[in-house]
Each structure stands twice: as C-alpha cells, then as structure tokens.
Amino acid sequence: MTMTDARGSDSRIGETNARRAPGTPCWVSLMVHGPAATHDFYGALFGWEFRPGPQQLGPYARALLDGREVAGIGQLPPDRQLPTAWTPYFASDDVDRTAETVRLCGGTVGVGPLDAGEAGRMALGSDPAGAVFGVWQAAAHLGTAVTGVPGTPAWNELLTYETAGVAKFYERVFGFEPDPEPSTDHDRVTLRLDGRPVAGIHGVGDALPRDRGPHWMTHFEVADTDASVARLVELGGHVLVPARDTPHGRAATVADPEGARFTLLHAQR
C-alpha cells in the first residue's frame, strides 16, 4: 500500500473540487489557545496564508496554499481544558444519521450536528476508545482543495490501544473495509473505501502517551523531511520521533508550540 494511492480518482494531485464519497477524509482542523501565534508557525513551516471561516464554534480561519484551502485552525474556548490536536473530518451525505450511528456503535458525539454557515454541516465525535474525529456534510465547502504537494494533508492514522474493536466501529459508521496487515509483529489495519486506502489504524498498546490517549495523527506532505524538521525546531516546535525512513517515505513525528502532534512526511512516489 502506498499513501499516494489514498488520493483516489476524486482527489488527484492538484485541485480537488469533487464532492467526496462518504467516509473519505476530506478536511483536517486544529483548535488552539493562541490562533495568531499558531498561524505564524504554520505559515512559516508550510507557506500557509489564512482567511476567516465559519464562526459557529468561535474564531476560525481556513489555511490556504496558493489560494486553495487545505486546513482549518480555530480557537479553543478559554474554559475548556482540551488537548490541542489535529482532527480529521470524514465526509458524510447525512451528518445527523452518521452521528446517530456513532452513538449506536458505542461512540460519543461531543459537538453538533450543527450548521457551519453556508459551508456545510458538521459534528465532532469520539470512538469507543476516546479518539476524536469530525464528520462533514459538505454544502459550499467541499473540503481540502489541493493534495499531493508540500504543505497538504497526505494521510491520517489512528493511534490506539488495539485495532480490532475500533476497526469494527469505523467499519460500521463509515463503511470502511478494514484490511489487517499480514504481520505478527505489528497491529495495523488499513481502512479502505472501494478497495483504495483512505486511512490507517495502528494499535500500540501501552506505548500510547499517557497524557494523550488514543488519537488521530495527520501526516503533512513536505519536500524534504529533514529540512522541515530543522525549520520546525527554529520556529519553536518539538521533535517527538526523529526523521526515519519508513515504507511510506521519510517521516518525523513532531509537535507544534502548543503541543499538537503531527507527522512530516516526504512520501515515496
């Protein structure tokens, strides 16, 4: 499996204006305490620029790369002690029905469903192990508008205790086809839609960070992983797992100055 396959026919390298099939990862969003400093950090790291987005959940901005939307950054309410974390959104044709399915399958719906202005309708949920994800029913805003170039989301992987139970949850909620890795050494599952990989689950048992618990990890495409790591450190970020060669490309696990974890990936083509 190569992560580049995950783009599929409706998400080619370049502009992607097609409506995503239900279950397809379509957006990533980050809620932080200090949006201005966060904009500066990601602007310098990825070349993003920002413009205001829907304000239903408070101040929110969309990150643009060459004028095309790639991600969102919002402000956490000051009274909420939530971890700052990148959150993937999965496409849905009916977010209310998906939210009900989340509840029926043992998950929790923490926010919504609610309308995000003219953009669409959204909900934030968590799986039975506690990992947070979003659901997006597109209207005017279809999601990430460009992929396959540096500064864009390349892949989403769930880090959790074990894959079996949670894979069944995501299969029931989004129609994924879980494809376990045929290895006794790693507890990994690739989630597929119509045969193509769209996300992954990695069971790491007790190796999960105690302050974080199960969580989704967004991988961002970069032109040079080592150079991007050096730039991230200059900007006040932190290296959690140094750059290493993986089957998918050269990757480093890092955190921004507020502690949001993500992966820098120079993907193999």
Automatic annotation (TrEMBL):
InterPro entries: Anthracycline_SecMetBiosynth, Glyas_Bleomycin-R_OHBP_Dase, Glyoxalase_6, VOC_core. Residues 24-138, 152-267 form the VOC domain. CDD domains: SgaA_N_like. Pfam families: Glyoxalase_6. SUPFAM superfamilies: Glyoxalase/Bleomycin resistance protein/Dihydroxybiphenyl dioxygenase. This is VOC family protein. It comes from Streptomyces hyderabadensis. The lineage of its organism: Bacteria, Bacillati, Actinomycetota, Actinomycetes, Kitasatosporales.
